[in-house]
Amino acid sequence: MKVYHKKLPNLKKPVVATIGVFDGIHLGHTFILKEVKKEAKSRRISSLAITFDILPQQFLHKFSLENKWKPRKTFLGCITDRQQKKALIKSLGFDYLWLLKTNRKLLELPGNEFIAFISKHFNIQKLIVGSDFCFGYGGRDCVGSLKRLAKQHGFEVSVIKKKTKSKEIISSTHIRKLIKQGDFKAVKSFLGRNFSLSGKVCRGKGLGRELGFPTANIYVKNYTQPAEGVYSVLVKLEKKIYLGAVYIGERDEGLNKPILIETHIIGFNKSILNKKITIFFLEKLRNKKKFRSLSPLIKNIQKDIKTITSKCSTLTCQHTQPLVP
User: Fold this and answer.
1) CA gap 244, 278 in Å, rounded
2) 319 has pLDDT over 50
3) Is residue 5 predicted with pLDDT exceeding 60?
4) 150 partner at 20 to 30 Å CA-CA among 88, 186, 188, 293?
């Protein structure tokens, strides 16, 4: 897959394309992306996904805070980061990915200028979008305007209706709510895979090691923050998969501070400081508890680990989880 980001593309090859924020690449997004691939294959031309390097809401939220403005909308965090998004789109077999550089100039383009900008850099034959697709300054243009502009620029438009799961519309907004609640079984049913977080292991206070349960600590920023508590997880380290237990303590509801994810990798006791790990959330075991002494805390941790190892194995999980990121 050829990725365009810092340099603007200038390709005259015909493509079938889609445009969207695609935060999460959930089952609704996946359906659209697969339709693009199918249509491109039938026409024997290339497939193109166009998205943003930074979520527009995230950019506007940060811009407002930097300029001491009150944000128009609260940004509730990302479901996927840029690298995860690239990996997921690549796994679907796309030929091209164009990561638009999110900035004021781009977001303030009127709808007609935005479509002209896109059309200038790729020879789009057909554009496939979701029914809630909006574009242009403030998202003022929608599919009606898109169809009108498509005629001017000589491409077709296909609009995909929203998909549902268990009578609930599949949306990033709903998935964020589930993440904040810690309901990762439900999150998986809407994403089509387990929610994951990635980061470099950093030095902690060493309390876990003193207790006999060393933790790999990562700080993550701009993600939707999971609820406090203890979770069973899979940990990906250098292409190997391990079972683990994650503890998430007090969270900063703002997005200015990163959240600490403390992970005990079961049966693993090597130093992995500064190495990248990816954590795949399986399910919530319990809420956060306070203990008066270390003895009941240790017993509780032992109980958590026993629960995790009795419920699942890394071998079983590797066959059931699409561990793309």
Assistant:
1) 11
2) no
3) yes
4) 88
- What domains sit in the chain, N to C, each tagged with a CATH number? 2-168 (3.40.50.620), 194-320 (2.40.30.30)
Strands 216-220 and 2-4 turn out to be: unpaired
pLDDT at 13: 87
pLDDT, tens digit (0-9, with 9 covering 90-100), for 88-103: 999 999 999 999 999 9
Q: Residue 310: what pLDDT?
A: 84
What is the token pair recorded at 177? 């709510």
CA distance 229 to 246: 8
Question: Is the backbone of residue 158 left (phi > 0), alpha (psi -120 to 50) or beta?
Answer: beta
Q: Are residues 200 and 238 in contact, defined by beta-carbon separation less than 8 angstroms?
A: no
- Reported as a single tens digit per residue, the pLDDT across 132-142 is 999 999 889 99
What count of other Cβ atoms lies within 10 Å of the Cβ of residue 43? 14
- Where does residue 44 rank: exposed (0-12), middle (13-18), buried (19+ CB within 10 A)? exposed
176 with 79: CB under 8 angstroms?
A: yes
What confidence tens digit (pLDDT) does each residue in 32-60 have?
999 999 999 999 999 999 999 999 988 88
User: What does the pLDDT read at residue 313?
Assistant: 65
Residue 80 has pLDDT above 50, yes or no: yes
* CB burial string 136-174: b at 16+ within 10 A, e below: beeeebbbebbeebbeeeebebebbeebeeeeeebbbeb
Reading the block at residue 115, the tokens are 């479509």
Alpha-carbon gap, residue 221 to 290, rounded angstroms: 26
Q: How many CA atoms lie within 13 A of 202 on its CB side?
A: 13
